[in-house]
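Progress against Task 2.4 (sequence-to-structure conversion) is shown through the following example record, which the project officer requested during the mid-term review.
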Amino acid sequence: MAACRLWRGTMSTLEQTTRACGMRGINPRTMILGALFALMAFLSLRVFVLLTKVEPNGFDYFGFWAGARVAMQHPVRLYDFAYVTARQTWLIGPVAMHPFVYPPSSLPFFAPFAALPYWPAYGLWVALTAALFLVASLRIGATWLVLLLPPVACVAQDGQITFLIAALIAGGLSLRSRPMLAGMAFGLAGAIKPQLLVLLPLALVADRQWRTIGVAGATAGLIAAVATAIWGPGLWADWLRAMARFQRATFAMPSVVRAMITPYAALDLAGLRGAWAFPLIPPVLLAVWSTFRRTADVPTRMLALIGGTLLIIPYAINYELALLAPALAALAMRTQDRRWPAYAAAVLLYAAAVPVLGMGYIYCQSALVLLLALLGWARWPSLRTRPDAWAPIARPRIPTRVAAEVRRQEQHTANFT
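Structure tokens generated for the chain above:
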């Protein structure tokens, strides 16, 4: 209650200030939004500079580029962690482990860039994926301000694949009325990073998007078939074994676990069993099912789908927070929504979750839960009151009295003429 009174007092003060300054038509929330994203721009610049001091630009992309080159030259060694890491020492120096752990179906996306020298490939990769990310964000109601969020700066500096995955998921969700295109977008995302789409089948079944499910499966299957034809079926078994080795190795390195954002990682870092996070799976499944049954709002669906996934998978690094950026930025633009203060607070929580800003790994690992809890509370009224998203929408009907008056006027006009 005190927070609500403070917020109402702040709004009243801002409104009086704008009127006194002759800015009667300016919404105080618009002023706060501008100040908020100005802060985001400052934090993003700071994040980029600090990360550049810690690691070279494109540190993560170098693993994709080197892995794709190994696949073209020595495919049997693609999932040899030591070999792939050794191919990267000329840029990143000696590191314990920097392997390629993406499925063979991701290679058709990386291979064209690997044909270029590293720095042009890195620049082109970031430019193209960021452009797709921005276009998809605009489709769901965000603005170019989404590029100012700090986790977005992390992805650009690292050259991660998050821009592309977020663009494909946001694009697929926004193309609900075009199941062929939506299915293709989801299929492409699943071929690159399938663990981030573990909840997608449940969501599409809840929404009764049968054609989208079929097209997504066919698209992913076609890409997998192409990769198998080029690099051979043996890579799939190598990849499955590499995933198990990679998880064991990463959870044995506390520095890497501190950079993770999942409840599983938080429990593991606290000395507890990470599997204790798995009881979150039933409520997450219920939340995703309810969201896709009750609302067609794309940002809400994206938060449920991606946020739920990050809560139940063991491994996700802080740059994966950028997957939530399009949905969060879209909600932040809704300054007329009575829950807008919660959206603004969520942006602050979200920005502070980047570790290099100095909030500490305990906050960074709990920020995801706090963020989703706040946004879930803010969006709950729309889920509680809206009918099923797939139900037909009734056409508006003209009241009887109005219709009768319209008919009398039309009859009178006809008689007069």
